[in-house]
Design brief:
34% of the residues lie in helices and 16% in strands.
C-alpha cells in the first residue's frame, strides 16, 4: 500500500482524504505525558494517549448536545456554504480541514457545497502548535489544486494558538492578503469567515476520534514525510462519525430561508477585545505563566478535561446547560468547577491545566 495516497477513515471516500500516514504508536499515559510536556523533555506532538470508548453517560450527554444543537449546526453549515460561494464565485472550493477539530465541519461543508452545484474537494491535513502545518501534505494539495481556491477549516477557535501557527506557516503564501481561515465558532474574531462568535456547545466538540472518522490526533513524524496518525479500529462499535453527518443533514429540509453569515469587521474587532481581556483577567488572577495551560471555550475546556490533567475549570454559571458534560467529566476527575461569572466572557468555560513542575 502506498502510504502517500491518503485514506478516508470511517467516512465515505468521497467525503474526505486524510493526508496522513497510518502508524501503530505507543500509548503514553496522561500523567506521564503531562510531566514530559511541561518539563520540556518531549513535545506534545511526539506522544499519543490512546483513546478509550466514551462512557454511556458521556454518550448520553453527547446525544443531548446533538439534539439541542443539530438545527443550529445545520443552519450555520448552510450559511458558511453560501458565504463561501459568494466569496469564491464560479470556482472550485478546496477545503483543507485541520486535523482533527476541522474534520466534521469539513465533511458537512463539502457535501453542502456539492449540493449547491459547486466543485468541492476536502482534505484533512495536520497542523501542530509550535511546529507548523504539514508542508509535505500541503505541497501534495498544491500539485493538484490552485492555492487561491483553498480555504483552511477548524471547528472552533479557543484562544487562537492554532490560527497563529497557521498564519506563521503560510506567511509566504499570503504575504499581502488575509489568510482564508474558516471556523464554525470564533469568540476571538480572528477567522476570515465564521458562522458566529458564540462559545456554544458544538456537538462534535465533545467527542474525539469517534466523531472524526476514527482518526487519532496527528503526531510529528520522525522523517520529512506526512505526519502520522492512528486509526482506532478498537472503537469501531462506538463510531458516530457518519451518524452525526446524517443527523445534521436531515435538518436541512426544516430550515427557514438561509442567508450568508453576518461576520463583520466590527463584530470581529469587538470579539478580539473581549476575548483578549478575558484571558488577561484569568492569567492575572491565577498566575498563569504559560498560556498553553489555558484552554478557553466549551469545546477546548471539555477536551482538555478528557485528554490532559486539569487543575480547575472556570465557568460563567453552574446552571448553564452547555456545561453538563464538562461538569460530568470534571467530577469524574475530581476537579471542581469554579463559578467566575462574566469575567471569562465571551467564553462560557475555561480549563486550566495543572502544573506538573
Amino acid at each position: 500500500m502506498n502510504e502517500y495516497q491518503g485514506f478516508s477513515g470511517s467516512y465515505a471516500a468521497q467525503d474526505i482524504q486524510f493526508l496522513l500516514r497510518l502508524r501503530v504508536l505507543a500509548d503514553t499515559p496522561v500523567e506521564q505525558k503531562e510531566q514530559l510536556i511541561q518539563t520540556g523533555q518531549r513535545h506534545y506532538s511526539e506522544m499519543l494517549t490512546l483513546e478509550t470508548a466514551p462512557s454511556p453517560e458521556h454518550m448520553e450527554l453527547f446525544r443531548q448536545a446533538l439534539q439541542a444543537g443539530k438545527q443550529r449546526l445545520a443552519l450555520e453549515v448552510q450559511q458558511l456554504a453560501q458565504s463561501l460561494c459568494r466569496l469564491r464565485p464560479q470556482q472550485p472550493i478546496i477545503l483543507i480541514s485541520l486535523v482533527r477539530a476541522g474534520v466534521p465541519l469539513g465533511v458537512l461543508l463539502v457535501r453542502a457545497l456539492r449540493s449547491m452545484g459547486v466543485e468541492a474537494h476536502h482534505y484533512g491535513v495536520s497542523i501542530i502548535r509550535d511546529r507548523g502545518i504539514d508542508e509535505q501534505a500541503l505541497r501534495w494539495v498544491e500539485a493538484r489544486h490552485a492555492l487561491e481556491h483553498c480555504v483552511f477549516l477548524d471547528g472552533w477557535v479557543g484562544k487562537g494558538a492554532i490560527f497563529k501557527q497557521l498564519t506563521a506557516s503560510l506567511a509566504r503564501h499570503y504575504p499581502a492578503q488575509e489568510l482564508p481561515f474558516v471556523s464554525l465558532a470564533d469568540p476571538t474574531g480572528r477567522s476570515w469567515l465564521a458562522a458566529s462568535g458564540d462559545d456554544w456547545l458544538i456537538p462534535f466538540g465533545v467527542l474525539g476520534s469517534t466523531i472524526s472518522g476514527l482518526v487519532s490526533r496527528s503526531v510529528w513524524p520522525s522523517d520529512e514525510g506526512w505526519h502520522y496518525c492512528m486509526y482506532y479500529t478498537h472503537l469501531v462499535e462506538h463510531d458516530v462519525s457518519q451518524l452525526f453527518i446524517a443527523t445534521i443533514e436531515a435538518e436541512y429540509a426544516q430550515l427557514p430561508a438561509v442567508s450568508p453569515c453576518a461576520w463583520t469587521l466590527e463584530l470581529r474587532q469587538s470579539l478580539a477585545l473581549q476575548s483578549d481581556e478575558a484571558l488577561k483577567q484569568v492569567v492575572s488572577r491565577y498566575g498563569i505563566r504559560n498560556l498553553n495551560l489555558l484552554k478557553p471555550g466549551i469545546a477546548e475546556a471539555t477536551r482538555a478535561v478528557m485528554r490532559r490533567v486539569p487543575e480547575t475549570v472556570l465557568v460563567q454559571s453552574l446552571a448553564d446547560p452547555a456545561i453538563r458534560l464538562l461538569n460530568h467529566l470534571a467530577a469524574q476527575r475530581g476537579v471542581a468547577l469554579e463559578v467566575v461569572g462574566e469575567v471569562i466572557a465571551p467564553y462560557r468555560a475555561v480549563t486550566i491545566i495543572k502544573k506538573a513542575i
